[in-house]
Design brief:
The protein is mostly beta strands and 144 residues long. It has a single domain (22-142), classed as Jelly Rolls, CATH 2.60.120. It has one helix at residues 39-42; strands spanning 25-26, 32-37, 48-54, 63-64, 70-76, 80-84, 90-94, 99-102, 108-111, 118-124, 134-135. The strands form three sheets. It has a six-stranded antiparallel β-sheet. It has a three-stranded antiparallel β-sheet with strand order 7-6-9, with no helix packed on it. The protein has a two-stranded antiparallel ribbon with strand order 4-11. Strand 1 and strand 2 form a beta hairpin. The longest helix has 4 residues, at 39-42. The radius of gyration is 16 Å and the shape is globular. The N and C termini lie far apart (55 Å).
Amino acid sequence: MKNEAAQPKNPPALTAKVVSGSGSQLAKQGSVYRSGVSAQSVGSNMLWLGAISLPAGRRTGAHRHEGHETALLMTAGQEIEIWSGPKLERCEMVRPGDYLFIPAGVPHVAVNRSQEDAEFLGARNDPAANESVILMPELDHIVP
Protein backbone atom coordinates (compact mmCIF):
# COMPACT_ATOMS: atom_id res chain seq x y z
CA MET A 1 0.00 0.00 0.00
CA LYS A 2 1.36 3.36 -1.02
CA ASN A 3 1.76 6.06 1.65
CA GLU A 4 -0.15 9.00 0.12
CA ALA A 5 1.03 11.48 2.78
CA ALA A 6 4.67 10.93 1.81
CA GLN A 7 4.09 11.62 -1.88
CA PRO A 8 4.85 15.13 -3.18
CA LYS A 9 1.85 17.13 -4.40
CA ASN A 10 3.58 17.90 -7.70
CA PRO A 11 5.97 15.70 -9.65
CA PRO A 12 9.60 16.71 -9.08
CA ALA A 13 10.98 19.28 -11.52
CA LEU A 14 13.60 17.84 -13.84
CA THR A 15 15.02 21.20 -14.91
CA ALA A 16 15.38 24.71 -13.55
CA LYS A 17 12.50 27.05 -14.40
CA VAL A 18 12.46 30.78 -15.01
CA VAL A 19 9.28 32.60 -14.03
CA SER A 20 8.47 36.00 -15.50
CA GLY A 21 6.87 38.48 -13.14
CA SER A 22 3.12 38.05 -12.98
CA GLY A 23 0.20 40.31 -12.23
CA SER A 24 -0.75 41.23 -8.72
CA GLN A 25 -3.63 40.18 -6.52
CA LEU A 26 -5.11 41.70 -3.39
CA ALA A 27 -4.78 39.21 -0.55
CA LYS A 28 -7.76 38.93 1.78
CA GLN A 29 -5.73 40.43 4.65
CA GLY A 30 -5.12 43.60 2.58
CA SER A 31 -1.59 43.37 1.18
CA VAL A 32 -0.80 43.05 -2.54
CA TYR A 33 0.92 39.84 -3.71
CA ARG A 34 2.89 39.12 -6.89
CA SER A 35 3.70 35.42 -7.01
CA GLY A 36 6.92 34.18 -8.54
CA VAL A 37 7.73 30.64 -7.44
CA SER A 38 4.65 28.66 -6.42
CA ALA A 39 2.91 25.36 -6.88
CA GLN A 40 0.96 26.90 -9.75
CA SER A 41 3.91 28.51 -11.57
CA VAL A 42 6.63 25.86 -11.29
CA GLY A 43 5.18 22.90 -9.41
CA SER A 44 6.84 23.79 -6.11
CA ASN A 45 5.96 21.40 -3.27
CA MET A 46 7.29 23.34 -0.27
CA LEU A 47 8.09 26.94 -1.19
CA TRP A 48 6.45 30.18 -2.28
CA LEU A 49 8.57 33.19 -3.27
CA GLY A 50 7.23 36.51 -4.43
CA ALA A 51 6.86 40.23 -3.92
CA ILE A 52 4.48 41.75 -1.39
CA SER A 53 3.52 45.38 -1.02
CA LEU A 54 1.55 47.39 1.49
CA PRO A 55 0.31 50.63 -0.05
CA ALA A 56 0.98 53.98 1.62
CA GLY A 57 -1.45 54.79 4.43
CA ARG A 58 -2.86 51.24 4.55
CA ARG A 59 -2.84 48.37 7.00
CA THR A 60 -3.66 44.71 6.91
CA GLY A 61 -6.49 43.19 8.85
CA ALA A 62 -5.51 41.14 11.87
CA HIS A 63 -4.72 37.62 10.69
CA ARG A 64 -2.56 34.55 11.11
CA HIS A 65 -1.11 31.87 8.86
CA GLU A 66 -1.87 28.67 10.74
CA GLY A 67 0.18 26.22 8.74
CA HIS A 68 3.23 28.09 7.51
CA GLU A 69 6.10 30.37 8.43
CA THR A 70 6.81 33.57 6.51
CA ALA A 71 10.12 35.34 5.94
CA LEU A 72 10.28 38.86 4.49
CA LEU A 73 12.96 41.31 3.41
CA MET A 74 11.83 44.94 3.22
CA THR A 75 13.26 46.25 -0.06
CA ALA A 76 11.66 49.71 -0.40
CA GLY A 77 9.54 52.24 1.42
CA GLN A 78 10.05 54.13 4.66
CA GLU A 79 9.05 52.08 7.67
CA ILE A 80 6.09 50.02 8.74
CA GLU A 81 4.80 48.76 12.06
CA ILE A 82 4.38 45.04 12.70
CA TRP A 83 2.06 44.29 15.60
CA SER A 84 2.14 40.66 16.75
CA GLY A 85 1.33 38.30 19.59
CA PRO A 86 -1.84 36.70 20.90
CA LYS A 87 -3.34 40.15 21.66
CA LEU A 88 -1.16 42.12 19.20
CA GLU A 89 0.76 43.42 22.21
CA ARG A 90 4.17 43.76 20.55
CA CYS A 91 4.98 46.47 18.00
CA GLU A 92 8.24 46.62 16.06
CA MET A 93 9.35 48.94 13.30
CA VAL A 94 10.54 47.41 10.03
CA ARG A 95 12.73 49.47 7.69
CA PRO A 96 14.28 48.83 4.26
CA GLY A 97 17.04 46.24 4.63
CA ASP A 98 15.38 44.59 7.64
CA TYR A 99 14.37 40.94 7.63
CA LEU A 100 11.15 39.86 9.30
CA PHE A 101 10.13 36.37 10.45
CA ILE A 102 6.52 35.52 11.26
CA PRO A 103 6.05 32.11 12.92
CA ALA A 104 3.11 29.92 11.99
CA GLY A 105 -0.04 30.68 13.96
CA VAL A 106 1.07 34.10 15.28
CA PRO A 107 -1.56 36.86 14.93
CA HIS A 108 -0.17 39.99 13.27
CA VAL A 109 -1.04 43.30 11.61
CA ALA A 110 1.18 45.39 9.33
CA VAL A 111 0.62 49.17 9.27
CA ASN A 112 2.12 51.56 6.72
CA ARG A 113 1.59 55.10 8.04
CA SER A 114 4.01 56.63 5.53
CA GLN A 115 3.32 58.30 2.19
CA GLU A 116 5.31 55.64 0.34
CA ASP A 117 4.40 52.07 -0.58
CA ALA A 118 6.31 49.43 1.41
CA GLU A 119 7.81 46.63 -0.71
CA PHE A 120 9.00 43.19 0.42
CA LEU A 121 10.54 40.05 -0.98
CA GLY A 122 8.71 37.20 0.74
CA ALA A 123 9.10 33.45 1.12
CA ARG A 124 6.98 30.91 2.93
CA ASN A 125 6.77 27.16 3.29
CA ASP A 126 3.29 27.04 1.73
CA PRO A 127 3.67 26.74 -2.04
CA ALA A 128 0.13 27.90 -2.89
CA ALA A 129 -0.17 31.22 -4.72
CA ASN A 130 -3.26 31.89 -2.56
CA GLU A 131 -1.98 31.12 0.92
CA SER A 132 -4.20 29.97 3.73
CA VAL A 133 -5.03 33.03 5.84
CA ILE A 134 -7.22 33.11 8.92
CA LEU A 135 -8.70 36.57 9.43
CA MET A 136 -9.06 37.68 13.06
CA PRO A 137 -11.45 40.66 12.97
CA GLU A 138 -11.94 40.40 16.74
CA LEU A 139 -8.39 41.83 17.11
CA ASP A 140 -8.65 44.66 14.54
CA HIS A 141 -9.70 47.27 17.14
CA ILE A 142 -6.42 46.81 19.08
CA VAL A 143 -4.17 48.44 16.46
CA PRO A 144 -4.88 52.13 15.84
